[in-house]
């Protein structure tokens, strides 16, 4: 019985701990006015909820601190999507 409880506890910890520990990234578009400048960037999102809405809530204040206005979060993804976006993001790859 004790082994069964320990196994169940371990399984539950793995299920609940997995998504929170997963790496999450978002690609976005932002702007700066006067003069108008548009950027495409990629940032890591620390929120355990890897959704565009959660990424938006986290990225908007980060970008604002640098003088940028978040226009849209295009997508969220795991580390497997980083390399294909690196060249497009240029200086804004993991900057904010």
Automatic annotation (TrEMBL):
Keyword vocabulary terms for this entry: Signal
Organism: Rhodobacter calidifons
Signal peptide: 1-22
Name listed for the protein in its UniProt record: Secreted protein
